[in-house]
Design brief:
Elements: E1 6-10, E2 13-16, H1 17-26, H2 30-49, H3 57-70, H4 76-86, H5 90-126, E3 128-136, H6 139-150, H7 156-163, E4 174-179, H8 185-192, E5 199-205, E6 208-218, H9 224-244
Helix pairs in contact: 2-9, 5-9
Amino acid sequence: MIESTVFLTADDQPISLGQALRYLESSGKLEPVIWEILGQYIIEQELQTIQEFDIAADLIDQVIMDFRLENQLIDYQTFQEWLANEGIDYATFRKQITSNLKLETLKNQVTEPNLQEYFIERKIFLDKVVLSRLVVENQALAEELKSQILEDGGKFEQLVQEYSIEDDRIFNGMMGAVSRGTMPDALRAAINLANSGELIGPMEIDELWYLVRVEKILEASLEDQLKQELKDELFEQWLEEKIQNINVKLQVDF
């Protein structure tokens, strides 16, 4: 029955559900599709069993209005044209908004109890430091350059362009924002004690000698975009654990 069930047509030629599953299997994409289906199944089950996920109509209206304002769709005709371009009608659009609100409510319920702890665990990777570096091949030269900077008034940027062996010398050694968690232990320990503008080193990293200037320290805080990202990560972990703990049997021969 499954084998003969038409799933879709391509140039008026039918492709059965069984064929579609074989195509996914041969391309190595069947398992991710199954996981996505199971994830949506679990979310649907959770939403159906908890009454608090009934979303107030006025909240839905407000979210829709905010969306239209943000996307410059206030004019009725413009909004209708946008819906047509998306291939949906207003009822479907409203249903999508409602589903998104319910999903966000579920995410909050699942993640809020563990969010602060998860943030603390991840903070070393979330904190960033903007650095510039001067990299040379031997310690003596690194010491001399540091002396020129601190004692003789030598300009860090000029010395970087003249002596550094790294490609970023053309940008005055600017490395950009670097996660604390990805730094070598010795460098991270030194930066933890440093202030903005301070010169660190010389220190040996991967058989090269570094002078590092701390440009700016960017401490992560649990708010706005970062908070949403961590909630999404925690929710995906919760969903994956749920999937792993259910008994799944594929009922199709293909």
